[in-house]
Design a protein that fits this description.
Layout lengths: L2 E3 L6 E3 L3 H10 L3 E2 L1 H8 L3 H13 L3 E6 L2 E6 L6
Antiparallel strand pairs: 1-2, 3-5, 4-5
């Protein structure tokens, strides 16, 4: 499982926080596939795809189809 249980609250916490995901996308010259991010974080691709989708829904990532793949990009508001 990719999430760990918080000992105090008993709730699951995300193993890969949003900042790690955003940084992994930035490190791929600002655009990356889920597979590239998963490789960078040594994480399952499906879990990373879910996290990327959540960041997109919150306006922190953009995405565009590139052939059969999706290229995730850091939103302008997130650029440093």
């Amino acid at each position: 499982m990719n999430d760990e249980r918080d000992e105090q609250s008993g709730r699951f916490k995300q193993k890969y926080d949003p900042e790690q995901i955003l940084e992994a996308v930035r490190e791929e010259d600002g655009g990356a596939t889920a597979s590239e991010v998963a490789d960078r974080l040594d994480a399952p691709r499906r879990s990373i795809h879910t996290r990327l989708s959540q960041l997109h829904e919150h306006g922190r990532l953009g995405k565009r189809d590139v052939g059969p793949s999706v290229l995730w990009t850091v939103a302008d508001t997130e650029e440093r």
